[in-house]
Amino acid sequence: MIDLDELDKVNDLVVEGEEFDIIPSNVDMFNLEPQLITAVRNKERLAMALDHLEGSYDYILIDCPPHLGYLTDNALLASKNILIPALAEGTSVRALEILLDQISTLENAYEIEIKKLAVVANRVNPNNQAKEMMEWFNKAFKDRVPIFEIRKRVALQRAWSAGVSIFAHNESCDMEGKFTEIADYLEGVDFNE
């Protein structure tokens, strides 16, 4: 994403899979953010690279780092949509406020709308703190976007460690239906409106 003449090589990075294709993360991404600071069109590089992507994709999901910066800005500007993941913990309140402020800043600066699609509460434990956070999510987002609750499950952690989806993992999990529900919801979203 640094060399403008290399953006068309994004196709060389695609790893085809049974369930979906992926462009895997790389340790070199760690150094990308500081390099983007001085790059020309530093918040548009991902969109420019995706313009070169060959093949027919119904959806492109971009997994961002867990902090705000040039990589997250690139993802937001390239997609103009966000599925908001959040832990059901008290620290998420301030993090979400900062994220929503950053989205508003990008919308104003680039004169676009970044559509908030849904909130996915991750690793939800059956405790009072998680219950309070789910109540906060419902109060803050319920009238605007759906809220999906993914409970903490060892099978999800094992699937992640194995580098496969929960559907390809050899261990069943009661959260599979929730992921299907999220996918079904996203399939029904009109991304052109």
TrEMBL record:
<dbReference type="InterPro" id="IPR050678">
    <property type="entry name" value="DNA_Partitioning_ATPase"/>
</dbReference>
<feature type="domain" description="AAA">
    <location>
        <begin position="10"/>
        <end position="114"/>
    </location>
</feature>
<protein>
    <submittedName>
        <fullName>Cobyrinic acid ac-diamide synthase</fullName>
    </submittedName>
</protein>
<dbReference type="InterPro" id="IPR025669">
    <property type="entry name" value="AAA_dom"/>
</dbReference>
<dbReference type="InterPro" id="IPR027417">
    <property type="entry name" value="P-loop_NTPase"/>
</dbReference>
<dbReference type="Pfam" id="PF13614">
    <property type="entry name" value="AAA_31"/>
</dbReference>
